[in-house]
Amino acid sequence: MLYRGKSSLFYIFSSFIGALLVAGFFAYDNYRFSKFKFINFSQTILYTKNDIFTPKQNNYYMLVFSSKMSNINTLISKIPKNYPIIAVDIYQLVYNNKKNIIFVRAGTNTIISIIRKFNIKKVPVYFEIKRYNKNLFKQNSILKVIQ
User: pTM score, two decimals?
Assistant: First the structure.
């Protein structure tokens, strides 16, 4: 009888530890998902040279850079060629779009909002965004600072 009591106590504690591990993994997954941010192109208005930017692809790389600090051609050569690039210049210089590179501008408040939303601390930086809904895109990679 005493042996049976110890084994049932073992099963109770092991199931409790198993439930605790599952809850821990769930909490970690929620934390990991919350690190990535969203950008809504219906609310965040970006301008190309002649028009308002509207996303047509499902995936993009978003590049935030300063034309006063970096050569744009050098930066673009360091970004993978998997998806088109949305390039946001902090100094708002007007560039002609190139193949798979969309240069956009925005108001100062919009640029500050993008920098704060994605927690950008250094430029130049890029990250992948993926369509979540019609004009809503989710950050799909970590921030990658270009050296």
Answer: 0.75
100: left (phi over 0), alpha (psi -120 to 50) or beta: left
In the beta sheet, which residues pair with residue 104? 88
| 3-state secondary structure labels for all residues of the chain | CHHHHHHHHHHHHHHHHHHHHHHHHHHHHHHHHHCCCEEECCCCCCECCCCECCCCCCEEEEEEECCCCCCHHHHHHCCCCCCCEEEEECCCCCCCCECCEEEEECCHHHHHHHHHHCCCCCCCEEEEEEECCCCEEEECCCCEECC
pLDDT of 1 reads 45
100-116: per-residue pLDDT in tens?
A: 999 999 999 999 999 99
Amino acid 18: pLDDT: 76
